[in-house]
Amino acid sequence: MSKADKLSHRELELLEALRRLGGSARSAELAKVLEVSEETVRRTIKSLSKQTLVQRVHGGAYLAGPDTADSFFRRISEHPEEKKQIATAALAHIGDGMTVFLDVGSTTAYVAKELRDRAGLTVVTNSIGVAQTLANHNGNHVHFLGGEIQSNERGTFGHVAEQQVRAFALDMAVLSVDGFSAKHGALYNSATEAQLAAVVSGVADQVMIALAHQKFDETAAHRGPLPEQLDLVVTDDVPPRKHRKALEDWSIKLVVAPG
Question: Which of 52, 165, 243, 249 is most buried, with most CB under 10 Å away?
Fold first, then answer.
């Protein structure tokens, strides 16, 4: 008998909902799709996790398997306290009524939660999660970019997204990175993500990179915005000396979140 034959109707429904939502979702999203309580979703996730069919993370779950190795929900569960500190520090640079871009990064997702304290924002994003967090709240206007959806990133990328974002005059862009080099600056594993970040930086008055300090030790294949396009780097700990020197040479303000 296969694992599927042993599953309850509710467990099968939740697995199918996760597949339709791109392989990962928050408990609140699943509760809405399945028309049940979040407590029912949490119990079902717990059961499926014991059967190694899903991976539980704070606030949600993602399908287990090789295709989810780089799942957004895996990444958002890493270094949560550091990301909360960064998000709180980032909030000080974004005021009511601003036009703000937020990308698909896990640290950016924490910034989006903090931005629920702001009002009258015009939010431009390629992130499903950011749009859900800020839409219909405090008079915000949320614009979700079109383009090809990448399920592991829970967001849209490509020519359509790049063309649409060029129509906005952004006061602030909040970007994530996969690594930060003292030689090249912002680095990304995905060429399409790097390209969109560069386009966004070209139409923003200010560009903020929000990253956990561990990213200063990481590298990636694709360059994002040029260092001279960046204005702020917000992190949770003092970066290595060579990175501090590079930031100073590039006239990028370093903000280290208290914590």
Answer: 165
